[in-house]
Structure formats: structure tokens, C-alpha cells
């Protein structure tokens, strides 16, 4: 018996998801509040549509559950999912530039919350809690991961994410348009922190013409919207 192919059968998708860390010393680090739940939902939906997924996820972030309860028939999701854990920004960049650079991807969804600033200096061992009353840390800017991705995979359909705080909808959309021009993404998913709460997650899709192509109000809907964009 033959099965009809799923819409994304034969397509390879790279998804980055979750948080990154930057260590101050052996036991302390700075990070961000990303949980990876949206990235997990995107990866799960991509598998359901038949894609082969490589998921780069931050340590402690959510990952797809592809056990008995996951049924993307007729394909086997486990055989189509590659999980790569990264912890720091350097881990991410090394994985992209060395481990994956010669791998073909039809689409790349860069949902990971990559730290924009990291400590300039890492201190070996543990800074004693009985030490100085102040610990002054200098932060330095990190390379833009999405620009590196675009350089390495110039032909892939690239989705970038833009998170803002306290902006109006119009301001958010303009920021997304500017970001799209800078990183040469095919699509920007723009959202505001105040619109994200548990299952509620409002996101705006802005294409490479600066047009608003969709508004979604939860993570599952965002994931389904992204897959429909890739299929169309």
C-alpha cells in the first residue's frame, strides 16, 4: 500500500530554539527568559508535515515529544528529528559555522533567543561570596546569529524573530520591517513580551515586502502558520 506524501516530505528544516547562557564564573551565568516552547511547537508541526528537522536548542529548553503519543503518519518522526544541544552563544556559532555549514537546508527558522551581550571576561573557578561588596561586569556585544545564518545558507527560506517590549503595534511592525532589510530574511515573526503569557502568544508575520501577512494568537497557530507559509 502506498501513502500520499505529506506536504513537507523531503524538505530539510533547521530550527533554533530556546535560551542561551554566558558564564561569569564556574557557577554563575546570565541568560534570558526564553523557554523554547514555541520552537518545540514549530519543530513538532514541521515533523507532522513530513519535514526532516534539525533542532538546535538551548540547555534546559523544551524539545518535541515524539513518543507513542506523536502520530505524524506515515513517516516516523523520531527518524526525522536531529537534536543538537547548545549552551552558549559560542556553542551556537561553532555548531553553525563548523558542524552544519555544509548541510543543505530548505528553510531555517531562527527562533532562539541569542544573547546580544555577554561578559567580557570569564573568571576561572568560583568568585567567593565573601569577597568584595561589588562585582562590576563589563558586557560586550555578540555577533548577530541570523546574519551568519544568511551568509551560510543564502538560498534557504529564512525566518527571523523580533521581540520587543512596550511598543505599539505600528512601532513593532516598523521595527520588523527594518530588521527584515538588515538580515535579509524572507519572513519576520514579530511579537511583544506583554502579549506572551502561558498559552497566549500574539505574533505578526511580516514578509520581505514589508507586508503584514498574518496575525496569530497562540504558539500552535504560529507554528501552523509558519508551515503553511513554507508549503505555499
Could you characterize what this model shows?
The chain is α/β, with parallel strands linked by helices and about 230 residues long. It has a single domain (about 10-120, about 140-230), classed as Rossmann fold (3-Layer(aba) Sandwich), CATH 3.40.50. About 25% of the residues lie in helices and about 30% in strands. Strands 1, 4, 5, 6, 9, 10, 11, 12 and 13 form a 9-stranded mixed β-sheet that branches. Strands 2-3 form a two-stranded antiparallel sheet. A two-stranded antiparallel ribbon has the order 7-8. The chain is globular, with a radius of gyration of 19 Å. The two termini are about 30 Å apart. The mean pLDDT is about 90.
- Estimate the helix proportion, in percent: 25-40%
Q: Structural class of the helices, strands and pairings?
A: alpha/beta
Low-pLDDT runs of 5+ residues are none
Count of DSSP strands: 13
Mean pLDDT: 92
Number of domains: 1
Q: Between the first and last Cα atoms, what is the distance in angstroms?
A: 28 Å
**Which CATH architecture would you pick?**
3-Layer(aba) Sandwich
Amino acid at each position: 500500500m502506498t501513502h500520499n506524501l505529506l506536504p513537507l516530505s523531503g524538505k530539510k528544516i533547521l530550527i533554533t530554539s530556546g535560551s542561551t547562557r554566558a558564564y561569569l564564573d564556574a557557577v554563575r551565568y546570565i541568560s534570558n527568559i526564553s523557554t523554547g516552547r514555541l520552537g518545540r511547537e514549530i519543530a513538532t508541526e514541521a515533523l507532522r508535515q513530513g519535514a526532516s528537522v534539525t533542532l538546535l536548542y538551548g540547555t534546559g529548553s523544551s524539545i518535541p515529544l515524539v513518543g507513542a503519543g506523536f502520530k505524524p503518519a506515515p513517516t516516523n518522526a523520531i527518524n526525522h528529528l536531529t537534536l543538537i544541544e547548545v549552551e552558549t552563544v559560542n556553542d551556537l556559532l561553532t555548531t553553525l559555522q563548523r558542524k552544519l555549514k555544509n548541510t543543505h537546508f530548505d528553510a531555517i527558522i531562527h527562533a532562539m533567543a541569542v544573547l546580544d551581550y555577554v561578559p567580557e571576561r570569564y573568571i576561572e573557578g568560583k568568585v567567593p561570596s565573601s569577597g568584595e561588596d561589588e562585582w562590576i561586569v563589563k558586557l560586550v556585544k555578540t555577533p548577530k546569529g541570523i546574519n551568519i545564518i544568511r551568509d551560510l545558507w543564502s538560498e534557504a527560506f529564512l525566518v527571523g524573530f523580533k521581540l520587543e517590549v512596550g511598543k505599539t503595534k505600528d512601532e513593532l511592525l516598523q521595527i520588523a520591517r527594518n530588521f527584515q532589510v538588515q538580515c535579509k530574511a524572507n519572513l519576520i515573526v514579530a511579537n511583544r513580551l506583554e502579549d506572551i503569557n502561558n498559552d497566549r502568544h500574539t505574533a505578526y508575520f511580516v514578509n520581505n515586502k514589508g507586508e503584514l501577512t498574518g496575525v496569530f494568537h497562540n504558539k500552535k497557530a504560529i507554528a501552523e502558520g509558519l508551515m503553511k507559509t513554507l508549503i505555499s
